[in-house]
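Final report, section 2: Outcomes. Of the targets proposed, FAD/NAD(P)-binding domain-containing protein is the one most frequently requested by collaborating groups, and we therefore present its record in full.
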Amino acid sequence: MQLSNKQDAKVAIIGAGPAGTTLARLLHRADIPSTIFEAEKSLEARTQGGTLDLHYNTGIKAVKEAGLHDEYLKHARYDGEAFTFADKQYRIYIRRPGSTGESKHGRPEIDRSRLREILVASMPQNSIKWGVKIKEVVGRDGEWWLSDDDGKDHGPYHLVVGADGAFSRVRKLLSDEFPSYAGVGGVWGLIHDAEKRFPKLHAMANRGSFFSFSDGKSIMAQQLGDGCLNVSAIWARPENWTKTNGLDEQNGEALRSAALKGYTDWDERITSLLDAIDSGGLVNRDLYHLPVGIRWKHVPGLTLIGDAAHLMTPFAGEGVNLAMTDALDLSRVISKAVEGSINTSRDLRPILSFALKGFEDDMFRRAAEVQQKTLDMMNFMFFTPGAPYTTIERYAMTALSDELPNGTAWAVGLMMHTFLFVKKKWFLKPEPKVE
Ligand SMILES: Cc1cc2nc3c(=O)[nH]c(=O)nc-3n(C[C@H](O)[C@H](O)[C@H](O)COP(=O)(O)OP(=O)(O)OC[C@H]3O[C@@H](n4cnc5c(N)ncnc54)[C@H](O)[C@@H]3O)c2cc1C
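The predicted structure is given below as tokens.
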């Protein structure tokens, strides 16, 4: 089927997460229409807790290409880059202040909900079909049809993009892989109005993040733009912890007291983060990932981006950045193929298929590196005896690996090792208590 103009291109995107909305926005900028099908009923249907740090060469680059950088800057929190890394005795290994403005190596934080709002608001009305959960994708006569959970069909489409997250339904058409349990899970919750109600806890995050690890366990707190602290306790545990322990997932207080039992030998200033989570507001979550280096044989007219393509745990803070980079690259590939079809009066499908193969190969390569980095960072903190004392150098260097200018890794590594050697030998003491 040859296209006479860009409006003839028929692109369906399943999922209005960061990957799907970024792709739709970028296509809109290129005058190519697309429709997003999103299972959630509306933008407000689910609280999108948590904060995401966008990186200069990936997430922020996509935001810029989407023409949303000014809007993004209104909500990005450069002071959110502040970062404290401690162990269970509240001995601080690394403390970094936040910054005040954009830098090439900046990783400003933005609330997940705010990022989604910006992207959704930038698209034409009705380009997102809220409350439509896609059940099946079926190929017919070289085109694709979608059917939803209510039995309604949508289509036909030249291209269907599965941006439908961890448990993607589109993935099964491309790959036999399914996410496996990563070996860690935990409880999450918010502390509202932390600065006023819990100034000491608020100060621990220093408007950014507080991370503490020991004995395969962690407690973390991250400041959100609305003044909440997003707190998690994550630890190495078998899958289905709640079921095995007869815990009701809806009973936040039961989750809190069960989780706290694993932290009795932790500094109480750290565990008080868990204590302070708003009453009843705890949720339990197991973390899953796809195998490092996942790839599939190309199927014309179908592809995946974001977590659907390469789900990983959040320990390197790369998932959203990779998802938005996928969207950026894919938008360019689609745009080029559509223009190619119009300019040469040739069928879009073979042109698109050839381009998609190239896109997928690049994505597989890029994702494999980040998946490995994420796995390493998780292993350094949760599955290596003596962590963080024994692993902090490797953890820090892995975290920084993609930020360092070419040829500087050895120098930064030397400085980092020297700094941490001195710190560990002479200065690693529990933080003094302040009354
Ligand atoms: C606890 C936690 C903390 C994280 N922290 C960070 C971080 O700090 N930094 C970072 O970079 N990454 C982080 N991540 C990872 C990041 O959230 C993901 O990588 C990112 O959201 C992926 O975006 P996505 O659009 O691919 O998928 P998602 O955000 O999962 O979006 C998928 C969308 O598809 C919809 N959907 C699913 N199935 C269907 C269907 N059948 N029909 C219609 N719609 C459907 C869903 O409702 C959802 O809206 C974290 C993840 C978790 C779990």
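Residues 14-20, 37-40, 50, 52-53, 133-134, 163-166, 169, 306-308, 314, 317-321, 323 surround flavin-adenine dinucleotide (CB under 6 Å).
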